[in-house]
Specification:
2 domains, 198 residues, alpha+beta, six-stranded mixed beta sheet
Length: 198
């Protein structure tokens, strides 16, 4: 009787162990919920023309499965929008900078109170003139004045597809006027369905 009980107990434990492992395996393929990663460390530009790199670390091990549910939000301070490009680079081997904006915005100003929110589904692009001479807060897609000189990513965030987000993201703000400026905030937003566990 004891032998039968032990056998049944062992079989029951094996079935429970198998069921738990099966559940864990299947959960790896489920999409992750909303996630945000923020860098609010003020990064000042020196006033010398050239690159200005800001980093943001992402600690989640996941891959992008729907780039249309990814958002990049920026708060920038710079006096001449048309003299500033900006791009992002993901933390995978041989990644290259992908430009969000190339030399657009004319003589308008970027002010830190205004949040620029980039996503592939947005239709607006940064224009060359505004009533207050300030680039307003808004939902934007990528834009460039001259696609040959300043190539931007088309479609926006298309290069993210299937890439792991874990590691150090870089954001580059090359400026051409040599005027001082700063990045006040960078936020990466992954809405539900954007990511899947790697």
């Amino acid at each position: 009787m004891k032998t039968i009980f032990k056998t049944v107990l062992v079989i029951g434990l094996l079935i429970l162990f198998w069921a738990c492992n099966k559940e864990d395996d299947s959960s790896e393929n489920l999409p992750l919920g909303d996630m945000e990663f923020v860098n609010e460390t003020l990064a000042n530009f020196t006033g010398d023309p050239g690159d200005n790199i800001v980093t943001l670390y992402v600690d989640t091990n996941a891959i992008v499965v729907d780039p249309t549910k990814v958002f990049i939000e920026l708060n920038i301070e710079y006096p001449v929008a048309g003299a500033l490009d900006y791009a992002y680079k993901m933390p995978f081997e041989n990644a290259e900078f992908q430009y969000l904006v190339g030399a657009v915005g004319g003589n308008n100003e970027y002010i830190p109170e205004n949040t620029l929110r980039f996503n592939p589904n947005h239709e607006n692009i940064i224009e060359s003139s505004y009533p207050d001479s300030v680039v307003p807060s808004g939902d934007y897609n990528s834009a460039t004045l001259n696609a040959f000189d300043f190539p931007v990513e088309t479609p926006l965030f298309g290069s993210m597809m299937g890439k792991n987000i874990q590691g150090e993201w870089q954001f580059n703000f090359p400026d051409y006027s040599g005027q001082p400026g700063s990045v006040h905030k960078i936020k990466l937003v992954f809405e539900e369905g954007a990511l899947q566990r790697d």
